Amino acid sequence: MDDANDANDANEDADDARDDALLTIGAFAARARLSAKALRLYDRMGLLAPAHVDETTGYRYYRAGQTERARLVALLRQLDMPLARVAEVVHADGPGAATALLDAYWAGVETRVAGQRTLAEYLRGRLSGRSSEVYGKFVVETVDVPEQVVLSETRHTTAAELPTWIGASLGRLEEAAGGCGGVTAAPFVVYHSEVSTESDGPAESCVPVADEAAARAWGEERGRAWQTRVRVEPAGRLAYTRITKAQVAHPQILAAFEAVEEWIAGQGLTVAGPCREVYFADWDAAGPEDPVCDVAFPVR
To answer: How far apart are CA 128 and CA 143, in angstroms?
Structure first.
């Protein structure tokens, strides 16, 4: 029995010695199935530092025991995870925290892919000449709206940042509206230029209020904070289509905008201002299939 224990101890000592042995970057790269270039990058990013760097030559040396970390980093990169997110995972405080970070990242990937899948279906319809079938799903109507005094906040934002900013900015403006006679109509967001993954607008959140004098005072007090201002939205006619909460998501909403544009052209009308989204329902309480928003264009 003692002999067996001695043998096990000797084997463990040998394994420890192998793990503790220094390997050149080339030898370690082969063991970890990575390139030396990748290892240098991981070092610069703080993901996997060499066990030793020769002060004279600058050569990097690694220990065999670092192989598992190297392979983990490489596998995370195969998920197209950005290096900054990889660093969060490998430096997480325990397996549970690391798993939670991975789950959060992958949920975001699946959301993005779902949006891209929808966009691909939409583009397939356009390229195949079936766009009229897509547009036909939207009922377009017109409505006359009166002149409105609005509190507004403007920001340059991309499509990825847009939903968060809309919710936050409308929340700030609706809170301010309490001191300006209250909200008098549905809040809306005006797009003064394209907002997409590559174009950042700007977009303008607007909340109509009752008391213009109080609104002007609020505007003067706020100054340039959050790029806020008070302005008068002129009376006019809107061509619009009503969409559900699920359809508001980008890129699904693109089809709604284009359907309204096609209808306007077919009616011999002219677009008279920037497009907008009018939010008439409680967003948080609404389900995916509940109507929440009008996609609209001013027309004449």
So the answer is: 33
Helix (H) / strand (E) element for 163: namely helix 162-177
What is this structure's pTM?
Answer: 0.66
With 0-12 CB in 10 A as exposed, 13-18 as middle and 19+ as buried, what is 255?
buried
Cis ω before 202 (30° cut-off from 0): yes
Task: Name the residue among 283, 38, 61 with its Cα closest to residue 170.
Answer: 283
The amino acid present at 289, given as its one-letter code, is E
Q: Give the pair of three-digit tokens for residue 201.
A: 């607008």
Cα–chain center distance at 122: 20
Provide Rg for the chain, Cα atoms: 29
CB 52 within 8 A of CB 65: no
In this structure, the number of other CB atoms found within 10 A of the CB of residue 1 comes to 5
Summarised one tens digit per residue, pLDDT across range 90-130 is 999 999 999 999 999 999 899 888 777 877 877 887 788 76
Output the CA–CA distances (angstroms, integers) from residue 212 to 140, 187, 219, 231, in the order listed: 32, 16, 10, 9
Domains of the chain (ranges plus CATH)?
Answer: 2-91 (1.10.1660.10), 140-299 (3.20.80.10)
